[in-house]
């Protein structure tokens, strides 16, 4: 298994985008994601990492981008994924020198889950950030099993631990095992809104009643207004901070 960045191997970008999608359809409708995510290889190629197996196939990836961080936990946006994606591109356009980086997505093909590849990719991302002279690596983490407890506040969910003291959620635990700490909940990390016909298409649910609606794979309920033919989903994530050698 080899890890490459797209600055060195731009030819791997198409294979990276062709990896199996593991996200619920409605999350792919995030407006900032639609606008900016596909521009990451062009704008920040050295922060896009891909794992290539011995057969030459791309089987995992990490997408990240740099941003200017003040050194304070309070400098991480409450708008999480959306906020840091927008900020990274805005600061690049303004010529603002970055001091940290944020993970945006880490994905491993299903057949490679449980092999340690995700940890290898996260470690490679942290090493890349250090090599590029940045102080810290963050990530607005989407907890793997939060959708099983959609009515539990994220702040309470994050505090759930196993008997060994590690986080109960597998994805938060994977980060914690690499030395990452929970910083805060970002309550409005991704926002998806649309008319009810769109939501029916994305979820297969009738969306025929107003009020909060529990939707499979959603971390919190979707808010529905039949009267206004509108539904909105505001997803919380969890800011985590990975230590970087020589940085924070």
From TrEMBL:
<protein>
    <recommendedName>
        <fullName>N-acetyltransferase</fullName>
    </recommendedName>
</protein>
<dbReference type="InterPro" id="IPR016181">
    <property type="entry name" value="Acyl_CoA_acyltransferase"/>
</dbReference>
